[in-house]
Amino acid sequence: MYTRRVRADQRMKKKKVIKIVVLLAFIIMIGSIGTVMGRHVLHVAGKGAKDVFQVQNSSFEESIECRAMILTEEQTIYATHDGYFENMAKEGQKVRRNALIGSLVNNKMKTPIYSLNSGIFTMRTDGLEDIVPGICLQTAGDELFEYQPVLKGEGQRVSNGDVLCKVVDNLVPSRIIIEVPNSIELVLKPGGRFKIGVGENEPSYAVIQEVAVHEKGTLLLLQMKEFRQDFINKRYTAARFITEILDGSLIPAAALTEENGIKGVYCMKGDSFRFKNVELVKIIDDKALVNGLKENDIILSNSSRI
Known about the structure:
Layout: H1 2-46, E1 52-54, E2 57-71, E3 74-78, E4 84-87, E5 94-95, E6 100-105, E7 110-114, E8 119-122, E9 163-168, E10 175-180, E11 193-198, E12 204-213, E13 218-224, E14 236-252, E15 257-259, E16 262-269, E17 272-277, E18 279-284, E19 287-291, E20 298-300
Antiparallel strand pairs: 1-20, 2-10, 2-14, 3-9, 4-6, 5-8, 6-7, 8-9, 10-13, 11-12, 11-14, 12-13, 14-19, 15-16, 16-17, 18-19
């Protein structure tokens, strides 16, 4: 009995020793991995690279601010006698052709008003409905942007011949007239495709339909790719005419350096930073647009710290 207990105790001790050895081996292995990683981090930081930058592909748009006039394909509806217009269609509502959109009422009669075409109903007229269809870029001058819109108040009495409302055709692409400087170094001709930005919306492509060069500037009539809902209640607005689109990687300008007259950056390769030449496209404030880097490359954000 005594011998069996001694043997059992010895087996237990062996198992404990084996567990301790395995645990120590595991700790040593984890420590080794941590040391390698720590050396890598220290190597990067030790070069003064506390600030690094991850490269992302980007683009930069050169643009000029310009005056713009919005043109829409619209059916204008006029009063056939004095009175008040009682609308049945809601502002911004899509209406069908020959739909009843309201009535012109006075103390003698009530005349139903119908839409002749389908489109979007609006009562926000500006008094320029008769001028816009006859605009000619070749003969237009500064007066094109100097017309004073006259907004009609809701519930206001109208006279015979006054504009009541209009229906804007939402199946016809919107158009816009802009004025750009004559000094602009671009080939501007019908069929040219450029980006236009209006309001807070992202710029979208438009095609030049007509060009007219005047003493004070060049007028461009452009057709947008599609109908723009946000153009319905605009006549005059500010626009951004995109003159150039530059692609590349936008990085901190301080990351740029030179070696033997060649521009470049310090880019991570393995566990160290090495010089990599790049092509400088443009300096934009404290940023630089360059070619020659890959998406997700890690570079020093300040080359002076190397």
